[in-house]
Amino acid sequence: MLDRCITDVSLSKAEYQRLVPELQARLFDLEQMLLEARIPTIFVFEGWAGTAKARTIATLTRRLDPRGFRVYPITPPRTYEQQYPWLYRFWLKIPSYGQMTFFDRSWYRELLAAYTTDGDQDRWRTRCEDAVVFERQLADDGAFILKFWLHITKKQQARRFKKLLSDPLQSWRVTDEDRWQHRHYKRVYRVVEEMLVRTDTAFAPWQIVPAADKYYARLYILQTIVGALESRLGITAIDRGASIDDSGEALRRYNLSIRIPVLGGATNTDTVRPSPSAEEAGHQLTTTPMSNGSVVVTVPVVSPTYAASPLQRVDLSLRLDDETYHRELKRLQAKLYLLGLQVYHQKRPVVIVFEGWDAAGKGGAIQRLTAELDPRAYIVHAIAAPTGDDKARHYLYRFWRRLPPRGQFAVFDRSWYGRVLVERVEGFARPEEWRRAYAEINQFERQLVDFGTIIAKFWLHISPEEQLRRFEQRQNVPYKAWKLTDEDWRNREKWPAYLAAVDEMLLRTSTPFAPWTIVEAEDKKFARIKVLRTAVDVLESELGVVKLE
Amino acid sequence: MLDRCITDVSLSKAEYQRLVPELQARLFDLEQMLLEARIPTIFVFEGWAGTAKARTIATLTRRLDPRGFRVYPITPPRTYEQQYPWLYRFWLKIPSYGQMTFFDRSWYRELLAAYTTDGDQDRWRTRCEDAVVFERQLADDGAFILKFWLHITKKQQARRFKKLLSDPLQSWRVTDEDRWQHRHYKRVYRVVEEMLVRTDTAFAPWQIVPAADKYYARLYILQTIVGALESRLGITAIDRGASIDDSGEALRRYNLSIRIPVLGGATNTDTVRPSPSAEEAGHQLTTTPMSNGSVVVTVPVVSPTYAASPLQRVDLSLRLDDETYHRELKRLQAKLYLLGLQVYHQKRPVVIVFEGWDAAGKGGAIQRLTAELDPRAYIVHAIAAPTGDDKARHYLYRFWRRLPPRGQFAVFDRSWYGRVLVERVEGFARPEEWRRAYAEINQFERQLVDFGTIIAKFWLHISPEEQLRRFEQRQNVPYKAWKLTDEDWRNREKWPAYLAAVDEMLLRTSTPFAPWTIVEAEDKKFARIKVLRTAVDVLESELGVVKLE
């Protein structure tokens, strides 16, 4: 999940100061409403040392009624706490019905310690399960849980430490434990990644927060919490609209849209996301007619946050010249042929997933991938809307039954990810269904990997402009026209909604055992070579083949 | 769970034949309704070899429309099935929406094989998780799942094999695998027990079926399935009452009450259970006024099934003479004192739970248990209705915070089991809440045991007659009168409902790591000595103390 986090976003102080008071006021309102609704809330703040978690929490609590919340700083367990099962001290801190709790570090601190210091795999796994059980029991009892991981790179952490150490009044903040973490950043990173995947659930989702810029991080968290709570309390844009008056103040207060895609259990489906064109419009108001006839007024609040979308950062200028393309294609296809034989001999199943925008070039890439493989060794599944048996069963059924046997390739031209893409955006799956699906898909892929399956997943990315060019080209070339359907045009209309869905998919399902590869597909030649090269790399590494150039 | 199964119940063939056709007809009706409601159902049949699972399934399917169901006999995986992840072949067999599936053996066959043959603990644990994930994904998608374990003792299995082997037409039924299982009955038993606990969930509960008598087993299963499905479809006793006419036939068809407590996700709260006094009344009709003014007519259908309640089998005639009592009391208390020191030295926490009928003698037993312990070493928690902080949080909070530290005893006079006893019977917890609680409690106790906690749990059992005697005695003795409240009398009215709740509690929460001890408490002296002796045994075995008589 961390590999999908864009770490260099920032927000100006002026912008931050302009926006925060309104969000704090809304959080104050929510505090009262939660109390009345008797909903206990738990906000967990974890992250790298040097991400100023305590001061982030202060931003949240500053305007709250102190009777309504508790802040718990979590240190390593004290002697008396070690006399009890490890979750004891956290059970003692669960909120009463209606209370808000903020954990500055949490049970995850102990989970990480269990791994990085003990190195006891079995104990670590048991504790991950304990944590999930703990959260599930509280969530089943009505608790609302959000977990934040404040993320910075090793370089950013170094800069942060340097700054703190240079100030005699601040240097004490950098502890021995922090230095240890910095020295072992890579190792801790891998453990964190595994921990996030094991404990990311629909009832207690993780939010990864780019935390190098404090203003950005705090606003992101404030917006996420406010949006998620309003959603939980059933405050829709419409309800907020009821308070609209002409003063403009209430308008801003109640109609700020949550521009950051609020993730997991937190997305408010009634929240209107600005379209990319609103991007340029700056802070101009946009109005969106709702299906029930009312109008939602949207103020895009944080210009730079949109940039936290990993997809927005994809370098679409990457190109490949003809000569390199043909040379590389030949070389990689030859390798794939040999790797295909190894797959057969080693009896490993291979699953290759292609997802991407309409007309992003999935078909062409698949064709190049399989061209030199033994035709008996692979099968390509083109996945459209389910029909027949597939439609009458659990959505994973159609993929289970299309799994490759040992020694074979199965290439999926679209896949189970439809659940969190088209089914989410078009409303074919209910919110609780697609939110549950991230964990279901990770469990599914983990089972495949446990069996020995080699998995590669590609997202083919193009710009909306390039898509339009390709659509028009298809329309104009008679033998390509069949490829273009009304559905393609309809999907194109919903680009922003798809963008949010893709971003969340990439974040929540990029796991250590089945990571995503984003393919810059504006240039088809570049895309095809990247796909083939990645496939070759994955296969070589999984099959233990000696690399010969 | 298996230790709570009464294995020597039986039903006459005549009774069986009288009752089955009506239940089969209801199941046929349900098949149509499930199809219409598009609810897929999965019935898993596992159990010891020689329990005639296939013929049991035949009883269920005989009158069904063959288009509506599938029966899957599960053998060890074939060569081609071994080319896929282990759950692949079961995913291929999931029912379509509205279809019924009957699995004659299932994924649990492979789970057991993974343990008993591989002995690979890690793989076994992963597969248990895989099975739970599989069932959870299907249940989340709307599937209805019930799992039956057909249980016989080793002796009963021997008799069964002998009978089959003596018949040349039947002897082929006893396979080498069956013989292996019989030889290793004890070892398999332990694995089954662990498997049942790990995979018993609110969304896919296990039902333990006494299977020595085929008529009893089949009727039990038929009743359980019909009752559970009617409950799932929201068919209450009242709905069925709508079809009552004077012919008596429809009356029997629609008003047979499910006398066997239907367990787990399956209990129909509208089903009226006959009171113990109805026991003697034989097949006489009983009428019960419902809160909404209508009357439910109940035909007690299966006389002997009630005997499957382990509580009904408790030998309440057990007595202890004064002399033995005083000698044993002294001896055991002296031992407990020494064991208490060991607990302190070995730094093990100890949790002792007392549950039982009102006036069963919990207080007296606790007093004898703690009398000679160092007063600093133990604390007794009397658990009544929650108040204050405890009332405003998850029900387990009040017990987490009362856990003993290392080296101390905590004795609970009533406990977290209130969730599945008084809260269930009095309606303080919703059905989904107390059904979920069995797994929550097992998870809780497993976490305690993982930490090193020693747990003993006692159910003090008396007859309703003895309770009445004690109530009256309390009423008449001035210094005891305070012990008797209106609530005690109210609870007494609900004896049958409590009986069902206690039976299910004992079944679902008697785990290998925290088993229940049922104490015959009709005679206080006998009860106290049994409690002390059990406590001594548990402590000696857990602390590794050499036993010196």
Supply the key terms.
549 residues; Rossmann fold; Polyphosphate kinase-2-related domain-containing protein (chains A, B); 22 helices; alpha/beta; P-loop_NTPase (chains A, B); PPK2-related (chains A, B); five-stranded parallel beta sheet; 12 strands; homodimer
How do you describe this structure in short?
Chains A, B: Residues 269-289 are annotated as: Disordered. 2 copies of one chain form a homodimer. Chain A has helices spanning 13-37, 53-61, 88-91, 107-118, 121-140, 154-165, 176-183, 185-199, 214-232, 237-241, 249-255, 276-281, 322-346, 362-370, 388-391, 397-400, 422-425, 431-451, 464-476, 486-493, 495-509, 524-543; strands at 41-47, 69-73, 100-104, 144-151, 206-210, 286-289, 295-298, 350-356, 378-382, 409-413, 454-461, 516-520.
How would you describe the overall organization of this protein?
2 copies of one chain form a homodimer. Chain A is of the alpha/beta class and 549 residues long. Helices cover 48% and strands 12% of the residues of chain A. Chain A folds into 2 domains: 2-235, Rossmann fold, CATH 3.40.50; 312-543, P-loop containing nucleotide triphosphate hydrolases (Rossmann fold), CATH 3.40.50. The first copy, chain A, has helices spanning 13-37, 53-61, 88-91, 107-118, 121-140, 154-165, 176-183, 185-199, 214-232, 237-241, 249-255, 276-281, 322-346, 362-370, 388-391, 397-400, 422-425, 431-451, 464-476, 486-493, 495-509, 524-543, and strands at residues 41-47, 69-73, 100-104, 144-151, 206-210, 286-289, 295-298, 350-356, 378-382, 409-413, 454-461, 516-520. In chain A, the strands form 3 sheets. Chain A has a 5-stranded parallel β-sheet, with helices on both faces. In chain A, strands 9-10-8-11-12 form a 5-stranded parallel β-sheet, sandwiched between helices. Chains A and B meet through helix 5 and helix 18 of A and helix 5 and helix 18 of B.
